[in-house]
Amino acid sequence: MDRLLVVRHGESEWNAVRRLQGHADISLSAKGRDQALALRATIQALAPDFVATSDLKRARDTAELLGFKEAEPLAGLREHDVGSWTGRTIPDLQAESGGAYARWRAGAFTPPGGESWIDFRNRAKSAVSTLAEKVSGTLLVVAHGGVVRAILEGFLDITPQRIIPVGTASLTVLRCQGGSTANMRLELFNYSPIGPVFDAPD
Asked: Is 196 within the bounds of a domain?
């Protein structure tokens, strides 16, 4: 693999009200579909050689809107499982959790019944590494904000507390020096053709 393109799905119906999704299979909002269509020309111009997507609907539908209906769906690219926090709004968790939400966001807390940050990071990294072995050129992964953060830590050692929430329907790009995932560099982060997003929901 020479280059890794990672797209967060467009805004979902739960993103719009800042409700945590985790593995819940939530559809894109109308805004999210428009966001994905706005990014389509950029992704098409980059001409990925292989496309994979999380198997959750919001990611699969984003991949299709980007022009890749046949993208390979993988459970390994699912969002971070937030356990009992699934469906809870972020403002409520921030008010009620006594700092647990901030620790979760930094990778230092696991909600009851949820997936630890380390397990999630390793899952996402393993999924991408397996794909990278099959691709000689450019790989496109359509997934989730948490997956983007997991990839940045897994391959670049950038910890989650150092990464802002990733914008919906945004593009992050990593370049492999010499085709090796052991030598990756960040080329682009959180790009959106309709402008930067600084307050994206988790």
From this structure: no
136-147 pLDDT, tens digit per residue, is 999 999 999 999
State pTM to two decimals. Answer: 0.96
Scan for tokens 């940050």, then name that residue: 117
Could you tell me the CATH number of the domain that includes residue 129? 3.40.50.1240
> Exposed (0-12), middle (13-18) or buried (19+): which is 152, by Cβ within 10 Å?
buried
131 domain-assigned: yes
Catalytic residue numbers, as ranges = 9, 79
In a domain, 200, yes or no: no
Tokens read off for 63: 């991949």
Distance CA 143, CA 182 (A): 22
Helices (H), 6-99: 30-46, 57-65, 90-96
